[in-house]
Design a protein that fits this description.
mainly alpha; 55% helix; 69 residues; 434 Repressor (Amino-terminal Domain)
Length: 69
Amino acid sequence: MMNRVREYRKLNKLSQFELAEAIGVARQTINLIENDKYNPSLKLCILLAETLGTDLNTLFWKVGETDEE
């Protein structure tokens, strides 16, 4: 599953460190999420979406993407 965290972080003019501080995680966690090497909890996904001014569907799912992909 590809996510759009990096794209929205840059749109909001935030560094990985700034985003991490805003939601209470380590910068490395943001890096891992952006590179699809960490599966964040639902709580963390919601915090990311709220902080980045978007919703879960936009941030984490592509239109037409299914669980089988």
